[in-house]
Structures are given as structure tokens and as C-alpha cells.
Amino acid sequence: MAFRKVIRKSEELQVDWGDRFTVLPWTEDKTEDIAQFMLGTGTQSFAELEECADGTPASARHYVTRARKYMKGKPDADLGYAASSLVYHTATSKLVAVCLCCGPSVYFVEVHPDFQRRGLATNMLKHALTVCAQHGVKEFHLWRCDDATEAKLYEKLGFQWTDETE
């Protein structure tokens, strides 16, 4: 599967999570929460990754820790953690949406199917754009397939598709 790069200028944007959600940054102690979330979403994005195709908790943890290892010692590692969002449903304390960033780039973004269409993906990306702008980073990017649902979200937020593929 080929991925295309989409980019957008960073800027400070209004983000309103309301009182139904609690949002935390990405920290190492949340690895297990994130791995369980990935296994429980019922979506293909995680299972399609070659190194995670077995769908085990160990492979999910590997996926999360691989990104942390990649960022270790990089000058923008703190930016990536701050720009990330772990969204918990306040009433149940259940992790319902995740956006993991590596520097000024999205590594993984997903919303649990039961919580889609509530603006969580939009808010997570707005949060990442805002944090990047506050840190003086001019451009934010991510790599995505040309999925129609995702494309609408990125276009709505002003992302521009590039010719770069991976």
C-alpha cells in the first residue's frame, strides 16, 4: 500500500474537548493503554502493518515502543510527545482516540468506532498543529493512503496532498 504525504502550515487553532473527554500527552507509562486501544478498535490500520499482523498485545506494544525508540535523542522528541493526544472518555476512563506524533509528523491516528463523528480526530490534529506552532515549527505533515474519509478530514483542515509517496 502506498502512502502520500500531506502537509499544512502550523498555526494555533481553537480546540474544545468539552467535559466528556480528558486529554493527556503521550508518555511511556501509557504504552499498554495505547496497545490495548489499537487491538480493540476493530479497524484495519493496525492489522495491515506487517510487523503487527499477528494482532497480539506484544506486537501492539512493539509498534508503540518502536516510535519512542525512533524519537529517543532526537531534538524534536519532546515536541512529538506534547503534540500527541490520548483522549479518554471521562465517564468510563476508556481510551477512545489516539494521535501519536514523532516531531512535527503524525505516526498513528485513530478514533474508536464507537466515538467517531464527534470531532475527536479534528481536535487531535488541531492540537498537534497548535503545539507545533507554539514551538516555532512552520510545517506539520503526515503520510496517508488516499482513503476518502481521511481525505475529507485533511482537506477540511487545510492539508495539501503532495506528490511524495512512500
What's the layout of helices and strands?
Elements: E1 4-9, E2 21-24, H1 31-40, H2 44-47, H3 57-71, H4 77-83, E3 85-89, E4 94-101, E5 106-111, H5 120-134, E6 139-144, H6 148-156, E7 160-165
Antiparallel strand pairs: 1-6, 1-7, 2-3, 3-4, 4-5
Description:
This protein has a single domain (4-157), classed as Gcn5-related N-acetyltransferase (GNAT) (Aminopeptidase). 36% of the residues lie in helices and 25% in strands. The chain has helices spanning 31-40, 44-47, 57-71, 77-83, 120-134, 148-156, and strands spanning 4-9, 21-24, 85-89, 94-101, 106-111, 139-144, 160-165. The strands form 2 sheets. It has a 4-stranded antiparallel sheet with strand order 2-3-4-5. Strand 4 and strand 5 (106-111) form a beta hairpin. Helix 1 (31-40) crosses helix 3 and helix 4 (77-83) runs antiparallel to helix 5. 31% of the residues are buried.
